[in-house]
UniProtKB/TrEMBL annotation:
UniProt xrefs under InterPro entries: DegT/StrS_aminotransferase (IPR000653), PyrdxlP-dep_Trfase (IPR015424), PyrdxlP-dep_Trfase_major (IPR015421), PyrdxlP-dep_Trfase_small (IPR015422)
Taxonomy of the source species: Bacteria, Bacillati, Bacillota, Clostridia, Eubacteriales
Superkingdom assignment: Bacteria
One GO term of the biological process aspect: polysaccharide biosynthetic process
Protein's UniProt name: Glutamine--scyllo-inositol transaminase
Amino acid sequence: MIPITRPLIGEEEKMRVLEVLDSGELASGYWTRQFENSFAEYLGIRHAVATSSGTAALQAAVESVGLVRGDKVFTTPFTFISTVSVLVACGLVPVFVDIDAETYNLDPERLAEAMEEYPEAKGVMVVHLYGLPADVNTIAELAEKRGMLVIEDCAQAHGARVKDRHVGTFGKAGAFSFYGSKNITTGEGGMVVTDDDLLAEKVRMFVNHGQRERYHYEVLGYNFRMSNVNAAIGLEQVKKLDFINRKRRENAAYFNRHIDNPLVLLPKEPEGYYHVYHQYTVRVMGDRNRFVQHLVNNGIGCGIYYPSCLTEQPIFQRAGYIDTGTDIARQAARQVVSLPVYPGLGLEELERIVLAVNSYRE
Ligand SMILES: *Cc1c(COP(=O)(O)O)cnc(C)c1O
């Protein structure tokens, strides 16, 4: 069975982890700071604050940007739970805006309409789904005109760019995840990035019990820190990020050239966008369950990200949200299937995946 994903871990990560274990300093410390510095340098941003997960990073960002209870925030209904659960945790009201059918990301035209309808909203939580940047230039421009702030959920898009600019550097803050399946991983982990000195300091306090000075608690905070053990892995993973993304793009290009089945629509990469293919996601016309079963019968693992919209989740129905239309997102949720695209796939495996997809019939 070809799994849906597999991390690229080598001797370098193992050596670094041993270095931490031998040091006796396993909690957040020297290696965490090194990892933060190297990630900030990679993105070309002033600050990076490591966290225990991507969700913790998102929450730290949302808590620290200056939004207040009851504020409305535009976001996509077609994403992972934490993009929106952190808004609810902060007492904010999600305003769902539909996605673009080709990019699966927030549709800027629909967002502009929603901004007309809810001019009192204070922010936009944008997601770069599957590793493809959203139209973040247009979105940031729309937000700026109305004095709204932008937060980027970059959990699936390490190293993704629009022209030469990395995602995570367009908004007031960006949040990354280093969960085991992401393009680079620390097992569990996350990172908040920002160019804003004051915001960086607030985030650092929030993830460390609200203290700047030891045992002096200025604000309510938590232990959302990243350990040296996790950071040691990340330190080596960052060095491999460009290689990993190039490999994923090569695998995606192979699929684009060889998948040929009228029932299977391929992903698109708009001009000027650098897609890092966290997922290679196709759209299946007809019975998706049969397609998935066909892949599994042929020894190909696959995933469905995501099988439903967040508007349908009981938690958000209870917490309350505004829905400005989710038809496109709902259709995507019924049709998408993600294929293995991880960097360790060999040519023989790529061929098997193509063969399985091409031999599917209704
Ligand atoms: C993975 C992911 C998260 C959450 O990251 P964790 O590290 O699992 O907490 C948030 N948003 C998106 C879009 C993700 O894919």
